[in-house]
Write a structure and sequence with these properties.
With 301 residues, the protein is α/β, with parallel strands linked by helices. α1 runs parallel beside α6 and α4 runs parallel beside α5. The longest helix is centred in the C-terminal third of the chain and has 20 residues. The chain starts with a strand and ends with a helix. 43% of the residues are buried. Bound molecules: NADP nicotinamide-adenine-dinucleotide phosphate.
Length: 301
């Protein structure tokens, strides 16, 4: 079958794009490699998505999927490993060997937060280990937390958390930060923020729930009791498969503007895998709508 639109990535951006494209009467296939819902399935509770006071990330992901399928979107759980184009037909090839063809393509593959690579890190996600202070910071109100990283994300996370948490340790592997000086100065003025510099997080402590971390600083081991650890050591988009079809910026994000168009006619990009300053659920779903409508316009032209 030749689909009107193939959407790669079943997170909020991809599923929203599917809903919009189906409502515009296009045939749609969504291909997801892990779990429909994308990054939000890592969030125990989502409290910043309009219309829901509080909802688990998995439940919100399920609702987005249900809505897209209710509109008639088809879905496949497959990992896309290659893409090619010939005679106006885009073919995506999956690890299983399956291949799907579409006239337009929306790349909505998201970006994964980089992990520290520590033992039990994945098991403690949502139980003290977090990757998004905006999403999960409120759950640690009044507690001691740490942020690991030295870029703008880590500095902003530490500032945000310092408003509601009792104490914030900002742990960075170097003696100076990569992020903006203005943010560093704002943090220096905070009485409840302690810089732990030249330090590496080496252990996650606690069974089932994080109770603290061990860091190595100047060759010495130090344990810090914590309710939460916010890892902010960068994100990695997974755009490599599509590099022949769209510009990537230095960090690997698709260098497309707010219109979600790439340099290749009929190839659009939506959500966290696109260059943008605010990567949030709301901006991802906005991209999904924009990319879908742009794809429909392109198909109808
Ligand atoms: P980033 O700038 O790449 O910083 C990542 C930080 O994590 C660096 O300090 C790095 O240390 C550290 N790091 C990397 N791997 C590590 C590891 N395995 N263990 C410990 N530390 C590790 O990432 P980001 O802060 O997410 O920002 C990404 C981009 O978005 C940047 O261009 C940033 O300026 C931009 N941003 C902008 C804003 C804004 O408001 N304008 C807000 C957030 C982000 P080293 O310094 O040693 O490499």
């Amino acid at each position: 079958m030749l689909y009107d639109i193939i959407i790669i990535g079943g997170g909020p951006a991809g599923l929203t794009a599917a809903t919009y494209a189906r409502r515009a009467g296009k045939s749609v296939l969504v291909i997801e490699k892990n779990a429909f819902g994308g990054q939000i399935t890592w969030s125990p509770r989502v409290e910043n998505f309009p219309g829901f006071v509080s909802i688990s990330g998995t439940e919100l992901g399920d609702k987005l999927l249900e809505q897209a399928m209710e509109q008639g979107a088809e879905v496949e759980l497959e990992e896309v490993t290659a893409m090619r184009e010939a005679d106006g037909v885009k073919t995506v090839v999956c690890e299983s060997g399956a291949a799907f063809q579409g006239r337009a393509l929306i790349v909505a593959v998201g970006a994964r937060p980089r992990m520290l690579g520590l033992a039990r890190e994945e098991a403690l996600v949502g139980s003290g280990v977090c990757y998004c202070a905006v999403c999960d910071g409120a759950f640690y109100k009044g507690q001691d937390v740490a942020v690991n990283g030295g870029g703008n994300s880590a500095l902003q996370d530490a500032l945000l958390l310092s408003e509601t948490c009792r104490k914030v340790y900002l742990i960075h592997r170097r003696d100076s930060f990569r992020g903006e000086q203005k943010l560093v100065e704002a943090l220096e003025k905070k009485e409840n923020v302690e810089f732990v510099l030249g330090a590496t997080v080496t252990e996650l402590l606690g069974d089932g729930e994080l109770t603290g971390i061990a860091v190595t600083q100047n060759g010495q081991r130090r344990e810090i009791s914590l309710g939460g650890l916010f890892v902010a050591i960068g994100h990695a988009p997974d755009n490599g498969t599509y590099a022949d079809f769209m510009e990537l910026d230095r960090a690997g994000y698709a260098a497309a503007g707010e219109d979600c168009r790439t340099r290749t006619p009929g190839v659009f990009v939506a959500g966290d895998c696109r260059t943008k300053s605010v990567r949030q659920l709301t901006t991802a779903v906005a991209d999904g709508a924009v990319a879908a409508l742009a794809a429909c316009d392109w198909l109808d032209a």
